[in-house]
Amino acid sequence: MDDVPTSEDGEAPVETVSFPFDRMTVQRFRKTFPRARWSDTLRAWTVPGKTARRRIECWLAREAARADVFAAEKGRDAYAFEPILSPYLDVIKTGFRIRTPYSRRVVDELRQVPFARWNGELRAWEVPFASYDELQHRWDAIEAAAKRAEPEERRKRTEARKGSEDEAKARRRSAERRRRRLPVPAGNLPPLERPVATAAYGIVVVTGVTGEIIDPDPVAEFYPDAGHEHIWATWRPPTLNELIHTWPVKTVAGENERKRGWWQPTIEELREARRTARSRERRQAR
Q: Cα separation of 23 and 19, whole Å?
């Protein structure tokens, strides 16, 4: 069951956490989270429960505070010798606070920094002094992505695309996406009401098959592998709960599966889809 991101009863949602290994840290973690299990597939610990994410963040904050005092001092010295000078970074008592416009690249980079954590109340990332070396190693990528995500930069790119073929393509693609349809082989249909990975739209839930045969020429721009043997299916975005309870496959889809247009997702594909679904559901809740 460690390969599946669900609790032992198969119902409760599960959160994952990873941290630098040492015996004492693992002992403290297991004492705080007795139901936690190690997943070789995820390369992370899984913690069940609806409040798991909040409890994990509190534990990470405590661990960061008790990190090796010498590592923290080393981080302070490294910052003093070669500081990161950026409007996105502030020095706080325990380390650094990072605020940037939303960027998936920024999030992905910060997730790789040991003991970095998201402070939901302040809407900022916090990184302890002990993790300064890794933060510095990733900062160029973080700052470049943050600058690209600034509203003014987005506006400039939008203005530059106006009237261009790129803008026209983007409009056509958006219009096609709103139709919520997907070409699937008539002789090899995806399962209904279960998340599947697709080449066109990531992980979706196929809700039905219309039976309408596709004319491939008008839609070749969006579905280059679609042919006369394909028919239209309808789809919707998956819920977070559906993604959590989807069993991942261990092998990446091959060329034939990708040409088919759909395949069973791997854990890496599911992780990305879960993050997207979690953000979408939080926005809807607000």
A: 12
